[in-house]
C-alpha cells in the first residue's frame, strides 16, 4: 500500500508539473502574439509619427516636451497598483482591462481635431494621453509580475531577447510603412488612416490579452503597506542602483525623447527620413536583443547594464560630428549606438527587476523603481523642451547639436565614474529562482 501511495503521489506531481509547463508555454506564445498589435499601435501613434501629429496640431517644443514626459509621470500609479495587488488575485483580468483602456484612450486622441475647437486641442490631448498612460503603467506592473511567473528563470534572457527581436521587427516595418504613407498622403487624411489602423489593433490586442494564463499570485508577508513600501527602500543592493539609473535617465530624457522633434523641426528632415532613421534604430535594437539575451545567460544583468550606459551616452556625444559632417551620417551613427545601448538596457533592466528582486515583494520593487525613474523621465523632457526653445535664440550650433552634446558628456561621466562601484557591488539574483 505505501508503494502504491507513493506512486500515486509521484504521478500527481508529474501531471501537475506537465500542466504547469503547458501553461507556461501557452503564456509565452500568447505574449509573443499579443505584443505584435501592441507594437503596431505604439508606432503608428507614438514615436516620430506622434511628433509629426503634434506638429500638425500646432504644438510647440515645450508642449511636445510636456507630452513626451507624460508616460514617465504616469509611472507613479504603479505604487498604488502594487498595494492593490495584495488584494486582487485575477492578474489576467486586470492586465486585459487596463491594456484595452490604455490603447482605446490613445486612439481616441485622433478625434480631437474633429470634435473640439482648436484652442482646446492641447489640454484635451494631455488629459486623454495622461489617462491612457495611467492605464498603461497600471497594466505594466501587473504584466511584469505575471511574466515573471510564466517565463522560467533559465530561459528568460533568451526568451525576451527573441520576443523583443520579433516585436522590434514589427515596429520597424510599421515605422517604414507609416513614414512612406505620410509622405504620399499628407495632412489630416494621412493621420486618419493611421488612427484607423490603431483602432483595429486595439481589438486584436484585447483578444490576445484575454488568453494569457492566470497563475496564482504569491502575496507579500510584510503586513502593512508601510512595511511593504520600506522593503525596497531599505535594500542595500537595489536602492543605490535604482538611484543611479534615475539620475542617468534624468539626463538622458532631456534630449533622447526629443530626437524626433530636433530632426523634424530643427534639422528640417522629411517624415520619411526621420521614420527611416528611427526604423534603423529599431532594427539595431532588434538584433541587439538576441546578443544581449545570450550574454545574459552567462553574465548577471547588473554587470551587463554597465556596458549599456556608455553606449547611450555616446549616441548623444557623436552629435558633435555635425560640426564637420553631413547631419544624416551623424544621425545614423547616433541611432546605431542608441539602438544597441537601449536594446541592452531595456532587456537587462527588465531581467534585473524580475531576477534580482524577492518574488513575493516583486510588484512593490517594480513600482518603486518605476516611480523613481518615472519622475526623472517626467522632468527630463520638460527641461529638454525648454532648452530647445532657448537654444533657438542662440547660435545655430547650440540647437543643432550643442544641447545633445552636453547631455551626452554628462552621461558619459556618470557611466565611467559613478556606475562601476554601484553595479559591481553585487551580482546575480538573490531569489531562489536560479536554483
Question: How would you sum up this structure in a few lines?
Answer:
With 435 residues, the chain is mainly α. It has helices at 2-45, 47-56, 61-73, 77-84, 91-108, 112-115, 121-150, 156-184, 187-209, 225-233, 238-255, 259-266, 271-296, 301-317, 327-355, 362-391, 396-423.
Report on the structure:
- The protein is mainly alpha-helical and 435 residues long.
- 79% of the residues lie in helices and 0% in strands.
- It is built from 17 helices and no strands.
- Helix 1 packs parallel to helix 2, helix 8 runs antiparallel to helix 9 and helix 16 packs antiparallel against helix 17.
- It starts with a helix and ends in a 12-residue tail after the last helix.
Binned, the helix content reads: over 70%
Strand content: under 5%
First and last CA, distance = 34 Å
Overall pLDDT score: 82
Could you describe the largest sheet, including whether it forms a barrel? Answer: none
Question: Which structural class matches the secondary elements?
Answer: mainly alpha
Q: Compute the number of strand runs.
A: 0
Unreliable segments (pLDDT under 50, ≥5 consecutive)?
Answer: 9-19, 425-435
Characterize the overall form: globular
Radius of gyration: 22 Å
Count of DSSP H/I helices: 17
Secondary-structure element order, N to C: HHHHHHHHHHHHHHHHH
Amino acid at each position: 500500500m505505501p508503494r502504491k501511495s507513493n506512486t500515486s503521489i509521484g504521478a500527481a506531481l508529474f501531471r501537475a508539473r506537465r500542466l504547469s509547463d503547458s501553461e507556461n508555454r501557452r503564456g509565452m506564445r500568447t505574449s509573443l502574439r499579443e505584443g505584435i498589435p501592441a507594437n503596431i499601435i505604439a508606432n503608428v501613434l507614438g514615436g516620430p509619427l506622434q511628433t509629426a501629429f503634434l506638429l500638425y496640431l500646432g504644438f510647440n517644443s515645450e508642449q511636445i516636451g510636456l507630452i513626451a514626459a507624460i508616460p514617465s509621470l504616469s509611472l507613479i500609479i504603479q505604487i498604488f497598483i502594487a498595494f492593490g495587488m495584495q488584494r486582487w488575485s485575477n492578474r489576467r483580468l486586470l492586465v486585459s482591462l487596463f491594456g484595452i483602456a490604455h490603447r482605446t484612450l490613445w486612439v481616441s486622441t485622433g478625434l480631437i481635431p474633429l470634435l473640439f475647437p482648436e484652442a482646446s486641442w492641447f489640454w484635451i490631448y494631455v488629459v486623454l494621453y495622461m489617462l491612457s498612460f495611467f492605464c498603461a503603467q497600471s497594466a505594466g506592473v501587473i504584466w511584469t509580475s505575471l511574466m515573471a511567473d510564466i517565463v522560467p528563470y533559465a530561459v528568460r534572457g533568451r526568451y525576451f531577447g527573441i520576443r523583443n527581436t520579433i516585436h522590434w521587427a514589427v515596429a520597424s516595418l510599421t515605422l517604414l510603412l507609416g513614414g512612406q504613407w505620410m509622405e504620399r498622403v499628407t495632412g489630416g487624411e494621412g493621420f486618419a488612416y493611421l488612427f484607423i489602423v490603431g483602432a483595429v489593433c486595439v481589438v486584436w490586442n484585447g483578444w490576445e490579452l484575454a488568453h494569457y494564463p492566470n497563475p496564482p499570485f504569491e502575496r507579500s508577508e510584510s503586513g502593512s503597506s508601510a512595511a511593504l513600501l520600506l522593503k525596497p527602500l531599505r535594500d542595500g543592493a537595489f536602492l543605490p542602483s535604482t538611484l543611479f539609473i534615475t539620475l542617468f535617465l534624468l539626463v538622458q530624457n532631456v534630449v533622447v525623447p526629443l530626437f524626433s522633434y530636433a530632426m523634424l523641426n530643427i534639422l528640417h528632415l522629411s517624415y520619411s527620413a526621420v521614420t527611416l532613421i528611427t526604423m534603423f534604430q529599431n532594427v539595431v535594437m532588434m538584433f541587439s536583443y538576441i546578443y544581449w539575451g545570450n550574454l545574459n545567460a552567462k553574465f548577471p544583468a547588473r554587470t551587463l547594464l554597465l556596458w549599456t550606459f556608455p553606449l547611450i551616452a555616446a549616441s548623444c556625444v557623436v552629435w558633435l560630428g555635425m560640426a564637420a559632417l553631413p547631419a544624416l551620417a551623424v544621425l545614423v551613427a547616433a541611432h546605431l549606438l542608441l539602438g544597441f545601448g537601449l536594446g541592452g538596457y531595456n532587456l537587462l533592466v527588465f531581467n534585473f527587476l524580475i531576477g534580482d528582486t524577492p518574488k513575493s515583494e516583486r510588484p512593490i520593487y517594480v513600482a518603486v523603481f518605476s516611480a523613481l525613474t518615472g519622475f526623472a523621465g517626467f522632468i527630463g523632457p520638460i527641461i529638454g523642451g525648454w532648452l530647445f526653445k532657448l537654444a533657438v535664440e542662440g547660435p545655430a550650433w547650440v540647437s543643432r547639436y550643442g544641447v545633445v552634446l552636453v547631455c551626452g558628456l554628462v552621461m558619459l561621466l556618470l557611466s565611467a565614474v559613478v556606475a562601476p562601484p554601484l553595479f559591481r557591488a553585487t551580482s546575480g539574483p538573490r531569489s531562489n529562482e536560479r536554483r
